[in-house]
Amino acid sequence: MDAVPATMEAVLLTGNGGFECLSCRTDVPVPQPRNGEVLIRVGACGVNNTDINTRTAWYSKAVTVATEAGGGDGFAEAKTEDSGWTGAVPQFPRIQGADAAGRIVAVGDGVDPARIGQRVLVEPVFRGATRFEATYFGSEVDGAFAQYARAPSAHAHPIETPLTDVELASFPCAYSAAENMLTRTALAAGERVLITGASGGVGSAAVQLARRRGAVITALASADKADGVRVLGAAQIEPRDADLVALFGQEHFDVVIDVAGGAGFPALLQVLKRGGRYGVAGAISGPIAELDLRTLYLKDLTLYGCTILEPQVFPNLVGYIERGEIRPVVAATYPLSQIVEAQRAFLTKQHVGKIVLVPGE
What we know:
Layout: E1 7-13, E2 22-29, E3 37-46, H1 49-56, E4 94-95, E5 101-107, E6 119-122, E7 125-127, E8 134-136, E9 148-152, E10 156-158, H2 165-168, H3 172-184, E11 192-195, H4 201-212, E12 216-220, H5 226-230, E13 236-238, H6 244-248, E14 253-258, H7 265-270, E15 272-280, H8 293-298, E16 302-305, H9 313-322, E17 330-335, H10 339-348, E18 354-358
Parallel strand pairs: 11-12, 11-14, 12-13, 14-15, 15-16, 17-18
Antiparallel strand pairs: 1-2, 1-4, 3-5, 3-9, 3-18, 5-6, 6-10, 7-8
Helix pairs in contact: 3-4
């Protein structure tokens, strides 16, 4: 392995706000792996909603509008003190980036030195002592928007695949979020599933992963992205603003997988069958939704909020990748130094799949 330098290229998030809070530097000290950690040379890293949500402080309860509304400039009403996804005060500067594909170049105490040189994919949710205690890679700890990143050894999963680092970096955050929702809702072969936001990173991942399970998929996506979503496995595609009740009636789907939220939420519960399951891991159309409790209890529905990964989710995901059961969907790549341009493109929502950054280019 090449020698590890003393400094690296990295993007520092210096505070909450607009793109001016992203500072690309080339003099950031390379982190040293601590006890139980590995140091990874990052080959590629993905762009996710959570990066922008953290920068703009969208997680603050004072913000009630859709994520992209403040993606460029931030939210004037946001409050830093509750803007972390855990509800804690974020620490700046922070290296963001939840997706990392690369190779281990150094290990800390307690880690087998034989891991040096191993190709890995980082599981972005670092589980704590209890089931619902966790830290997020690129949020509470520094992440992958850099040439080097450290992670707990247990969350740096070995992977053997001919896929490139750019292709691999499209998987961790989006696909683990999608697989976690499918796992929590126990989607089974032959069941009908409705997937919102199906052209985005998590939505397109959910389509592929639901197809892998043998489900019958209806996806919501704009007409110009329908073909891209169809090839991933959707049997039917409807517009994002479709009248779902008129199309499907009051009891049609076994499961709803939602990353949109907002004004469309009530209809999602209406089209679920009695005993249906709803899983959510995002609110790109708005965090405030109307809930008729009569719909919830009279139909015996189960609602799952999905953030912290079930323990089997990421190992299963690595297996799917290695066996070629799912494929990467990369919409575009940018050098890490062009992170602002990449986030601007991300916010237009004109792509299908993931936008990926490459450090050191």
